[in-house]
Write the structure tokens for this entry.
Amino acid sequence: MEGILANLNTRVLKEPRGFMKILQFVFGISAFATTTSFSTKFSFLMNCPNNNTIPVSGIVDYPFAVDSMNQNIQVCDGTTQKLYIIGDFSSDAEFYVAVGVLSFLYIIGAVVLYCYFSHMYENNPLVPMVDCASHVLFAILWLAGSSAWANSLTNLGMATSVNNIIEDNSVFCKPKICIGEKEPNYSKLVISVILGFLNVFLWASNLWFLYKETHYFKAKTQNQADGTNPMGAA
């Protein structure tokens, strides 16, 4: 245990590239956790001609394949019908969550590298280059995932709007029979999209600090120093 602690270098967590990892860790978890833990409810009332009122409700949750809910409801004539909802938004939601999970795992590996194998980062020029390139990749993935998820969230809100559900089920929801009661609330998912774009900013902005650790930047800085140093010029 003492040997492990002896090799621990927490100084790097106070540096920009290490501190940014902490921010990426917190906001990365928040982004995909708010998506996977989400659940909301919609409901409407079916006012039948025999003065009987039938409440109809449904739950929308991750991964948002709403067209496969296959919910059976009782209608006014006493038969059972399937509640039909258009749209499958699971692919974009799962891609967004996958980006978050992969970035979470990468951050853990990077922090271990920074804290326990700092000599490799400082002495092997390939390691900072790989770290910098990985951040480019994750910034692109976060941008793609957040954009796709933002678009799907808009379409999800339209597909699960109570008025649209009533219209799509007009076979048994005749005009003035079905009346909307509660719309689904997607404010939490809007926050998840905002967090996704915030992660784009965090991963992209960290590129400058990582570039400064590469041998390209250090060599350029050294050449500039040698060129402006009279002793070096002599």
Q: What stands out?
A: The chain has one domain: 2-213. Residues 2-213 form one domain. The chain has nine helices and five strands. The longest strand covers residues 39-47.
